[in-house]
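Morning run. Coffee first, then this:
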Amino acid sequence: MIYLDYNATTPIDSDVAAAMMPFIREAFGNPSSSYYLGIRAKQALEKARGQAARLLGCKHNEIVFTSGGSESNNMVLKGVALSLRSKGRHILTTAIEHPAIFNPAIFLMENGWDVTFLPVDSYGSVDPDDVKKAVRKDTVLISVMHANNETGTIQPVQEIGRISREHGIFFHTDAAQSIGKIKTDVNDLCVDFLSVTGHKLYAPKGVGALYIRNGIEIVPLIHGGGQENGRRSGTENVIMSVGLGAACELARKHLKDYTARIIALRDRLHDNIKKNVSELVLNGHPENRLPNALNFSFPGITGKKILEKIPDLCASTGAACEDRSVKISHVLTAMGVSREIGMGAVRLTLGRPTTEEEVDQAADWIVKAVKSGIKD
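And here it is:
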């Protein structure tokens, strides 16, 4: 089996698992308890918070641990909407967001808010000028993903952040796919909120984080005992948070080496397929994309049928939550990709464990599947 679906999820890194183990076995205290076990748990939690903060270039008290990217995104959209409902009820986002943004936005629309879904170009990139033109007096939040989960296209977040600051509007980015793959410094990106999910970063599923710039107060999504400085109640998940912190530390240390190696492997994979299948179409930006992402189409053949022909290849036809569907993804639709091209889309995403041998074998399997004459 060859796994090339790292944008769907990643395995837990062995160093991450080792960091978590003491808190699974013996250091099980509640971080709110005042005796030794509680103090040790609290110290571990704060160490993890610091590790996440260093990766994002922020202060440790600007990190809130959550259950994942979906909760972080919901926390921002609903929290800002409720906090600023007397100031305005307009939110700006894009047509290519993950469902964890799309669906909360629709929920808010159904409850009296106005949401503008900005278009993207043929590469899947939003134009900052479109953002500027769409800003209204009642706009309270702009949310634009850092990098797209399907195509890997990186958005002009920094430029949009500057626009938001000029207009005094809160700005959020969903960085679930970019964390650990490209630089994600919150100050460089000019963001007020940034969402992180652990299982895209070689940490466990069910843990994430949210960066909230100091000085910003929003209505909490979860009320209770006031943990996480009152921003996210519930007894803290020390085990998972320690894992996320360790993963953030690994990502920070190895980012430069990871980027260079993965780009070389991705381009090798692309070239090996392209030289044998001339009609291959690349979806997304050819350069301004995540180093591990390769989304392409074979006109006349659905991505679903290609992958069915290769049972030993773990890959996707789009977002993992829509995998194996027979409809063109909303991302490719927003990019103006034709139905014929969009139905043939296959997403291959590489990770730290990916090898040259795997890349070469995967390319060989794909070429053989395409040339086997499968038609729809």
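The first strand starts at residue 2 and ends at 3. Good start to the day.
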